[in-house]
Amino acid sequence: DGACRTSVMLTNGKEEVIKSCVSLPELNAQVFCHSSNNVTKIECCFTDFCNNITLRLSTGKNNIKIWGPVQLTAIIAVPVCLLSLALMVTVFTCHGRQRANTKAKKHSLEEVLPDHTFISSGKSLKDLICDLTTSGSGSGLPLLVQRTIARTIVLQEIVGKGRFGEVWRGKWRGEDVAVKIFSTRDERSWFREAEIYQTVMLRNENILGFIAADNKVDNGTWTQLWLVSDYHEHGSLFDYLNRYTVTLDGVIKLSLSIASGLAHLHMEIVGTQGKPAIAHRDFKSKNILVKSNGTCAIADLGLAVKHDLETNTVDIPLNHRVGTKRYMAPEILDDTINTSIFESFKRADIYSLGLVYWEIARRCSIEGSIHEEYQLPYYDLVPSDPSVEDMRKTVCEQKLRPNIPNQWQSYETLRVMGKVMCECWYANSAARLTALRIKKTVSQLSTQEDMKI
User: Fold this and answer.
1) Any bridge partners for residue 288, and if so which?
2) Is the dihedral of CA 207, 323, 195, 287 positive or negative?
3) Spatial separation of the C-alpha atoms in residues 30 and 284, rounded to whole Å
4) Cβ(275)–Cβ(202) under 8 Å?
5) Nearest-5° Cα angle at 189, 386 to 194
6) Which residues belong to the annotated binding site?
7) Which of these, 341, 420, 324, lies nearest to 333 by C-alpha position?
8) 115: pLDDT confidence band, cut at 50, 70 and 90?
9) Domain extent for 15
10) 3-state class of 54 per DSSP?
11) Annotated binding site for ATP
């Protein structure tokens, strides 16, 4: 707030520095210069205040513009926002171009590479599956081949409907195939069934032959979920038994093939190319197909579960009370099944297998005599569309099972089959037969019939 004055004086040959300060706005400064060894003389005078200098200093504040918080924020934010916007535009532009290129390549691939590019014209489906599965992992055709097949199928006629959607008969290069079209709300079932069918080493003559899975866009508006498999003109075992009767040999052939398919499904193959154990969980006559040679193939694996050998657990924690109520095992009906043990699901399948055997044996015709008309299990004990409570009262509380006719005891095949059924229906699931044991028992019946012939 002021200025200082410094004076240098020589007194008796000595230098004295005198400093005094005065307030602004005016400052009077006096400088005395005399000859001295320590002072450089530039311009001097020899009277008091002869070199009086008046300094005028500005007392006003500096004209420096100070920015407030709002202005500073604006100065920083605006460039940052502009830079971010430019970056976002660049990213979206690049992404859009990438998607466009991918789509263009996809359409180009489908147009330029017809089905014969991947599949030689002389190959049948049987040859194709045999070549590509025996030389590989055994888990099914490559995805590109599956898509190529699915998109060159021509649908012919609808042959069935179910909770999942529809089943069509289709044509691929003149061969009949079955096309199971799922509704979009059942995408999880479609994906699960396709996954199960492509399990390593699952392919077996008594399990429905899987060909392809594809999600097709129909007319560009909605998506169809396709599952392509072998076509069997007889349809399901339920349909077959409603239309036809079977001989004793036919009973054995149907029963043995079903047991063989279930045994393979339940079997765990350990190894690098091993197969996990699989439980069906919806085993019934409508989910078994009859082939032209009189044997069966197990189908509809959308509710199946696999056993994880490493962790000893079931691979998906779905609700365990699934399937068809009429075929549910007692432990499922009364909710006592131990879902943490995979064997529980296999034993529930065995209970259902016993009911399927009962359906088959009732339609056995010996010497032209039809024993029984076709009926579903428990037809005389529960309503046509029974609830879980209806089945629980009948199976768990009253402990009732389907009737075994007395005349079955007159024929060895039917007698043994009746005994097998009863051993499948035990309330104690641990006491039930295994699929492999049943297969061996029925196989012995087949041998006996062959010896008679």
Assistant:
1) 298
2) positive
3) 122
4) yes
5) 130
6) 180
7) 324
8) very low
9) 2-56
10) strand
11) 180
Kindly give the residue spans of alpha helices, DSSP state H, lying in 271-315.
none
- Tell the burial category of 30 from Cβ atoms under 10 Å away from its Cβ (0-12, 13-18, 19+): middle
| Residue whose entry in the numeric block shows the structure tokens 């409907």 | 161
Distance CA(349)–CA(304), nearest Å, equals: 11
Read off the amino acid at residue 129.
I
Rounded to a whole number of angstroms, the CA Rg of the chain reads 46
Looking up tokens 């099944």, which residue turns up? 337
Q: How far apart are CA 270 and CA 27, in angstroms?
A: 105
Q: Which of 282, 300, 315, 335 is catalytic?
A: 282
**8 Å CB contact between 138 and 203:** yes
Question: Is there a single domain that holds both residue 288 and residue 187?
Answer: no
Establish whether 300 is a catalytic residue: no
Could you read off the pLDDT of 175-226 as tens digits, one per residue? 899 999 987 777 888 888 888 888 878 889 999 999 888 887 665 566 788 9
* Residues whose CB is less than 8 angstroms from the CB of residue 106 and which lie 6 or more positions away in sequence, other chains included: none
Cα separation, 166 vs 164, whole angstroms = 7
Helix (H) or strand (E) holding 279: strand 278-279
Query: How many alpha carbons lie under 13 Å from residue 116 in its C-beta half-sphere?
Result: 3
Provide the CA 325 distance to its chain's centre, in angstroms. 26
- 262 & 193 share domain: no
- Inside any domain, residue 356: yes
Question: Domain for residue 93, yes or no?
Answer: no
Helices 435-452, 412-424: axis angle to 10 degrees equals: 180
The H or E element spanning position 123 is: none
**Last residue of some domain: 231, 257, 282?**
231
> Could you tell me if 347 and 435 lie in one domain?
yes
What's the distance, CA 269 to chain centroid? 23
Measured CA to CA, the distance from residue 315 to residue 342 in angstroms comes to 10
Tokens 């169809």 map to which residue? 224
d(CA 241, CA 63): 105
Question: Measuring CA to CA, how many Å separate 185 from each of 111, 150, 175?
Answer: 30, 21, 30
Expressed in angstroms, the distance from the first to the final Cα of the chain is 132
Do 356 and 286 touch, CB atoms closer than 8 A? no
Question: Around Cβ 400, how many Cβ atoms within 10 Å?
Answer: 14
* Contact (CB, 8 A) for 125 and 211: yes
Q: What is the pLDDT of residues 241-292, one digit of tens each?
A: 999 999 999 999 999 999 999 999 999 988 767 789 999 999 999 999 999 9
